[in-house]
User: Which sequence fits this backbone?
């Protein structure tokens, strides 16, 4: 269940990035942002999966709330949030300020 919540957070973040870039740069920029979000999620999850299995090597009991897959998604959420903040949120504010101060 916690896995699904983390997946949904990533989907909402990707939709925000798509919408933000779509409004600023057009449809091509929106799809590029969506691709970057998907690529970052895939790469980070493939890197954190083995780390999570080293930390939690035992198979979880059926119905367990926190498994090694959940841990790997939590580990994806931390650098993914930082990446999202720097690339989409702060980056779009900076470009908007630069655009306003053009001579």
Assistant:
């Amino acid at each position: 269940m916690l896995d699904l919540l983390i997946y949904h957070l990533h989907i909402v973040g990707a939709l925000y990035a798509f919408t933000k870039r779509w409004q600023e740069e057009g449809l091509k920029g929106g799809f590029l942002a969506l691709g970057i979000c998907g690529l970052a999620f895939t790469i980070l999850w493939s890197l954190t999966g083995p780390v999570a299995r080293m930390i939690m090597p035992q198979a979880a009991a059926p119905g367990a709330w926190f498994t090694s897959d959940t841990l790997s998604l939590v580990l994806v959420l931390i650098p993914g949030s930082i990446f999202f903040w720097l690339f989409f949120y702060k980056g779009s504010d900076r470009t908007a300020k630069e655009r306003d101060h053009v001579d």
In short: Helices lie at 2-25, 27-55, 68-100. Residues 2-100 form one domain.
